[in-house]
Design a protein that fits this description.
single chain; about 525 residues; mainly beta; 3 domains; eight-stranded mixed sheet; flat; TCTN1-3_dom; TCTN1-3; TECT1 protein
């Protein structure tokens, strides 16, 4: 960019106020009033590039030009990381269909979906820099998982609902897709995308650009009949290929689930695939396939998520607590927010330790009955009821999203604790002087959440959680007398989303018509 100058119009002459003109001398710059082109950059779509900055120091005597070369970062989410696909740097005229090449063009572009990538996809398109010689390669988040021939494919719908096999699986990106594939019963044995071999025949590279390979093993095989009944096979080491049997095509791949095990150094050490195979007839065409991929770090247990990213209705609320001196929240045993679980006999003492998870979006209420005798002491009874209502380890934080990680401190909402009483302040003070006991009888949890993100696909986000303990006064019972009181727990979900602005349509419509030759030369 230091050699580029769009205002240099005169040959071998200095252009007025053109601060990047190489024909201008220091004497010429002293006569300039401004720089007509203050900044020169290359392609603005690049994520990072050099920029040449030109300005005038008018306080100097005589005034002089100031030149700076800086690194400029593109703030846009959609930017070009590297221009390594040479064919995209220039426009090539499309091949016009003729009677001689029409069949070839129809074969290439006439299917439900096609790939615009070159046939010889080269994973190592960048020339190796000298500084990269001693670099230790490892997978990073979102980087396509490489195989010996290209990358691990996770078919998905692209423009329509039809399957495209050009979708790469990204490292640590959990995905679940469904798409439709056209299958011919007579030719099902020749269609690669419905065969188990298509999904396990290419070994995965343990780290990018390495010779160490990880084979994909078959973890399980489930066979689905025409009526939808599924049966798990005992032996998963047998490769079952599609074949025609009595006008049926059996061993068709209906679903694939990959599970990748990796180390904290970004190295893949194990890969497994679970299959769902089925049979189809001519009436079942086309077929729907489902694909899924998940990741687990070695020597760790997978943490169950309740959404990605927003909470899903019916899944548990994730919670945890922060130990003293620990920088971020730590999840409890089940990583869930729980309440008292009701029992059939409604006995509180028998229900101790019985908890049920709070499910997002479900208002819940539970309770039991406590039989109190005159022999019970106030302090132990109060502690027993608190343990009954809140559990042995009540969490301090709640995850704002269903996939919040412990290290993301801002993604955790602290639980606010409140206390209230069924009696007025004057009654409570009077009962205290009379030797009465204040015991907790109810726990009410209010979860406030909001719709976050786009109106088209809003994500549920928790913004506030309040736990309110309600107490009541228990007067001293005469000897030999008993009293039964109800103990209740409840959960209420409140949607705090702001309503749409007046006059704004939440579901806009587009009334447009394509040009008549938009799909030329195809109809």
């Amino acid at each position: 960019v230091a050699k580029l100058c769009v205002c240099d119009l005169l040959v071998a002459q200095c252009d007025v106020n053109c601060c990047c003109d190489p024909d201008c001398s220091a004497a010429d710059f002293s006569l300039f009033t401004t720089c007509s082109v203050p900044i020169v950059t290359g392609d603005s779509r690049l994520c990072s590039q050099k920029a040449a900055i030109y300005s005038l120091d008018v306080e100097a005597n005589p005034p002089e030009r100031i030149f700076k070369l800086i690194d400029q970062v593109n703030p846009s989410v959609f930017c070009i990381h590297a221009t390594n696909y040479k064919q995209a740097l220039s426009f090539s005229s499309p091949e016009m269909p003729t009677s001689e090449n029409f069949d070839q063009l129809l074969k290439q572009f006439g299917s439900a979906s096609f790939s615009a990538e070159p046939d010889n996809w080269n994973m190592n398109t960048d020339a190796q820099n000298p500084s990269d010689v001693n670099e230790t390669y490892r997978y990073k988040y979102g980087v396509p998982i490489q195989t010996v021939d290209a990358f691990l494919r996770l078919p998905s719908p692209v423009v329509s609902s039809w399957c495209s096999d050009a979708n790469p699986a990204g490292f640590l990106v959990n995905q679940a897709t469904k798409c439709i594939r056209s299958v011919s019963v007579e030719k099902c044995g020749n269609i690669q995308a419905v065969s188990m071999l298509f999904y396990i025949n290419s070994s995965i590279l343990a780290v990018p650009k390495s010779s160490q390979m990880v084979n994909i093993t078959v973890q399980s095989i489930v066979v689905q009949s025409l009526n939808g009944m599924r049966t798990s096979l005992n032996g998963s080491d047998v490769l079952r290929l599609p074949m025609i049997l009595d006008e049926l095509c059996i061993n068709i791949v209906l679903g694939v689930s990959y599970h990748i095990t990796y180390t904290d150094a970004g190295e893949i050490i194990e890969a497994a695939a679970s299959f769902v195979l089925g049979a189809i007839n001519k009436e079942a065409l086309p077929i729907q396939q489902s694909f899924e991929i998940s990741f687990t770090q070695v020597h760790t247990k997978p943490v169950p998520l309740s959404g990605n990213p927003g909470y899903v209705v019916g899944l548990p609320i994730r919670a945890g607590f922060r130990p003293q001196g620990y920088p971020f929240p730590n999840t409890n045993k089940y990583s869930q927010l729980t309440i008292l679980q009701s029992t059939s006999n409604q006995d509180c003492l028998a229900a101790q330790g019985a908890r049920t998870p709070i499910l997002f979006g479900y208002n819940m209420i539970s309770g039991c009955k406590l039989r109190i005798t005159a022999a019970m002491k106030c302090q132990p009874l109060t502690q027993t009821l608190l343990d009954l209502l809140k559990g042995q380890s009540f969490p301090e934080y709640v995850a704002s999203f269903g996939n919040s990680q412990a290290q993301d401190v801002l993604d955790w909402v602290p639980i606010t604790h409140l206390h209230t009483s069924e009696q007025s302040d004057n009654e409570r003070i009077y009962n205290t002087f009379q030797g009465s006991c204040q015991i907790p009888v109810a726990l009410e949890i209010e979860v406030k959440w909001t719709k976050y993100g786009s109106l088209v696909n809003p994500q549920a986000r928790i913004v506030n959680v309040t736990a309110t303990i309600t107490t009541t006064t228990l007067k001293q019972l005469p000897s030999g007398r008993e009293r039964t009181i109800p103990i209740t727990s409840s959960v209420v979900f409140t949607d705090t989303s702001s309503p749409a602005e007046p006059g704004y349509k939440a579901w806009p419509t587009i009334n447009a018509k394509l040009p008549f030759d938009f799909f030329f030369p195809f109809v």
